[in-house]
Amino acid sequence: MMKAISLFVLIFPMTAMLAPLDASADANERPSIAALEHRARNGDSGAAISLGMRYRDGNGVEQDRREAVKWYRQAADQGDPAGMDNVGFMYLRGWGVPQDGRIAVAFFEAGAEKGNAQARYNLGECHFSGQGVPQDYGKAIEAWKGAAEKGHDNAAWRLAMMHAAGEHVPRDLEKAEALCRELAERGHVNGMVLLGELLHRKGDEAAAREWWEKAAEKGSRQAEALLELAEWRDQDSEPGVNAYVPVDHLFQGWNNCGSTSISMFLRQGGGELTPYDVKRLCPQSPIGTGTDWAHLVAAGKEIGEDWELITFAYDDEGFETGVRAIRERLDRAEPVVIDFTVKREENGQIERYGHTLLVVGYHAERDRFVLKNPNQPSPGIELMTAEELEENWYSSGYSRNAKGKTARPLIVRKE
């Protein structure tokens, strides 16, 4: 049996994509810092960008992101659209400069106007998530289409995800499959994973497994999870033994896990609101900020949904009671919204932050819970043992109403 996937490994946010490092895969063949500086000072914008990458990542030199911005900015000032894109990304992340989405967007727009596919992709990310500009699906799709036309694989993949889910575009599984097949044949791992899922839905299990196996060989842990899940997710549910609830996967974008998880939860019951439709129903939790769970429940009432926030004690008994409640809901083909506290090491410091996702299945004998994670590539599947669930499922920040008290929270449909 394959090892369950740990949330700690897969939770890192996916926003704009970093540009590649120096073209040479062999570090011994890369130009020295001194050689790059000489070329950059003599007007070589490509050398300036390579210097920026080296300083950004601490590759062959002590990491210094302010120095990275200096060299990226030199390339941008010389009219290099890749330099513009990289300056924009540093402002988007707040690396070496104050974080400022508006400045980031200005640089992405400048790079995109010069035909840079990466800048167009990043501009689409900003429009999708409302970073530096008002959130706008239409403009995000337009930017990604432009990037995809220039051969940007991740832009095509984002379009495939949206067509697969019918998120602000018509649901078109054939178009999603065609996009993913082109990507998969070029070795795009996320394209392989989603292609396998689309083929599974069509009943072509052999082809689905073939693509998942190829993705797993390239290191995709989600593909490993899907291969294991394929052994039982289509079995008839048996209360207390196993259950799996099919749920559309939606990708959260920047800091929007709560509304995205609720949108997936809503869709499983027949609703059609997008994550940002839900977010706009929570004006006290504006776009770009985490969403208070009390605001999510209130948003449900506005659209005629009767949800409730229930909590269990943060102890062994609370966990056992909560797991029974989760399984009972899944036995009735109802997914459950759950909040985790995730630990991540950043610059030697342990950071903790909340993350909302869905529990969509379980298999008691295999000791597996199935999660639908909005922060992961479609179909967003993760597997977790009961021990891992117990370790991750707790929060004191899911709502201001918690008043800092740690509990194990869920959002469910009222009985």
Notes on the protein architecture:
49% of the residues lie in helices and 13% in strands. The chain is an alpha+beta fold. It has three domains: 7-22 and 31-151, Serine Threonine Protein Phosphatase 5, Tetratricopeptide repeat (Alpha Horseshoe); 173-229, no CATH class; 242-413, Cathepsin B, Chain A. Helix 4 (65-77) packs antiparallel against helix 5. The model is unreliable at 1-26 (pLDDT under 50).
* Top-tier CATH class of the largest domain: Alpha Beta
CATH H-level name of the largest domain... which superfamily?
Cysteine proteinases
Helix/strand-derived category reads alpha+beta
Helix content: 40-55%
Could you say how many structural domains there are in total? 3
Order of helices and strands, N to C?
Answer: HHHHHHHHHHHHHEHHHEHEEEEHE
Mean pLDDT: 92
Give the CA-CA distance, first to last residue: 36 Å
- Uncertain runs are 1-26
- The overall strand count is 7
Question: At the third CATH level, what is the topology name of the largest domain?
Answer: Cathepsin B, Chain A
Shape type: globular
In CATH, the architecture of the largest domain is Alpha-Beta Complex
Radius of gyration: 22 Å
Largest sheet: 7 strands, antiparallel
| Fraction of residues in β-strands | 5-15%
Number of helices: 18
